[in-house]
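ingest -> validate -> predict -> emit
validate: passed (alphabet ok, no gaps, 608 aa)
predict: started
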Amino acid sequence: MADSADIQPGFFARLKQHHIYRVAVGYGTAIAVLIQVVARAFPYFGWSAAVPAIIIILIAGFPVALVLAWLLVKPADPASQTIWRRRHWKLKAAVTLVVIALVVMSGFFGIRFSGRHAAVLSAVQLSAVSAATGTSAPSPATAIPAKSIAVLPFVNESGNKDQQYFSDGLSEDLITTLSQFTGLKVINRDSSFRFRNSTDSVQTIAAKLGVAHLLEGSVQHAGGEVRVSVELVNTADGSTLWSQRYDKPYKDLFALQDDITNAVAGALQIKLLAAPGAVAQSDRPPSGNLAAYNDFLQGKFYEQRTSEAGTRKAIDYFTDAIRLDPRYALAWVDLGTAYATLASDYVGGSEATAAWHSALAANHTALALDPDLATAHSSYSMILASHDHEWMSAEAEAQRANQLAPDRDFAALAIIYAALGHTQRAIKLLRQGLPNDPLCAGCYMRLAAYLAAQGRFDEAVEAVRKSLHLAPMALPFQVMLVKIEVMRSDASAALKAAQQMPPGVWRDGAIAFALQLGSNRAAADAALQAVIVKQAGFNAYWIAEIYALRRDPVHMFKWLGRANEIRDPGVQMLLTDPWILRYKNDPRFAAFCKQVGLPDTTDAKALP
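emit:
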């Protein structure tokens, strides 16, 4: 019988001698904890792309750890120890080389995997942007910033659709407040609210908006209680960075809003630091009057409906808010804006004149109450330009608005730049501002007009089609497409686009433009006369434009004079209008520019 010392222990006994079970349990516990830490911490710092690679490396290290334990851990039985000592230094040298090689390979693999993961994610997101807007995707140099966010419209769960204004108002307040944080890209309301009731994934929405984070939630408002559930989502992997449910008395609404803002700021590691010249903006009444705030929110809700009935309803609510808090500057601003919209889009004659006066008075009051309210300056600039033709003052007001809120009030300044004949500056400003409002249909429409003024018709068509993709039923955008097709001398495309519009004055005007290119002069004349009969009281500039297209300067200047008399807002397009600019060397052109207070020079190009 063999001596007991010569009997070799079994395989499982040898595993125990080398402490393999202990190493396996310890490593397994350690990587479970590390995976949790990596999955939660890395997205917090914007390193989401590296998470899969790190997890794979940790799991792959498990068998390596077992092999190292077998080779390096001193066995328990004396016989094995003798052999282990003789080979130990050789094992250590070999294992050290293997570990170094594994570390280098793992690092290389991790970097390559993370890079590929990020590249694939960026490609998917940029493709979604392209599909959403009809544009070519931005270059990797303009990739989505880590500190960027969109506040989606909170879901109204109050069981009463009439409470939608309240959940919208809470969302808008968060947009306004988060916009005060330097270094944080915050998407404007018009773009983020396009995803109301969207079934798109968070990754798709984020790609369309160009952000790394989404803030979404729900609101229940009943009686004196408010319940708000909020979630901050990292869009790279869909993980939740922070979530919270608040149950507060309605009287503590403003404190609740501040709690949410501070929590989001903490999760994103941002601080409230104003940009140079910027001033904190707020949509709350200075008195803290919740009833006034409630009326203001309802006014904003109806204002967004872009209809005459909605505009009149908004005027009523803004008036009620002011009655409750006469020092509510923002309510005065929106009251003025609603009156200006009524005057320019829906009424004429003495009613329009009265509405313009009300708009101007409301804005004066707002600026007296709060001289640092950005939207008061941008709204005032539009009134000064559209109705008063005080262009220099309008430019100063728009610049002040842009200084106070540089990421939000850029469109007004672009419009004034173009009105003063600086179309290239307008194009540049719109392109700079669009990343913060990437689904701004009106911005793309304006961009199309200014590109056409530079003779860049293909780019103009691309821009106006983006605007129509975002707002297919917007009649001004459809008219802009018709005009650009006419500028490109594509009669059939222009007429086809015009005929697809719904019946009404917008369609009549578009068809009149399109028919001027055709050979049927009787139809062209009849279409123009129909526009004159129906629209002379509020669309005089359009009529002047059609006469310029017809190469009839006598009637063109006659109708330009009429446009000035009725304060037609179309006059602001004078120095960007390729048809009107055919006659920029006519003495009557310089005289008219002087009459309306505009310079007689422009960087826009006239049509041949």
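The mean pLDDT is 82.
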